[in-house]
Amino acid sequence: MNPAAAFGHVLRYFRISSRLSQERLAQESGLDRSYISLLERGIKQPSLTTIIQIAQTLDLSPRELMAKVEEKLRENSKD
Amino acid sequence: MNPAAAFGHVLRYFRISSRLSQERLAQESGLDRSYISLLERGIKQPSLTTIIQIAQTLDLSPRELMAKVEEKLRENSKD
Hints:
The structure is a homodimer.
Chain A: H1 3-17, H2 22-29, H3 33-40, H4 48-57, H5 62-77
């Protein structure tokens, strides 16, 4: 699993946990809904600014969001 | 200070603390030296993959690197 795919999984997990639709997350973070969809599918990877914007919308600090991405990468490197 | 500028400051600080030249950091992280220079000056912002690559080269976890960027942003929002 590459970083984009790990980020996509983490984003989807926290978005659904926060009961936000892709549309709502997009609005609240100032990003396009189609971009959120590309991120969740691991097709696009986020920039630093996007990581910070999305973390704020999900009520996480950027470091917490990054920690979750690292965990996901670690888990999947065992496969 | 925007996220790119905060990242640039943090990168420069840890690169110099690690006694690495821009060239050496570039080689070890698999990035171009000119790109490292653009990052340090806050002209470009890093992608998730670049954050992970640079953190590894600087012997930090990506979450630690992100924490430093957050601190820098917080410090400079007080001005």
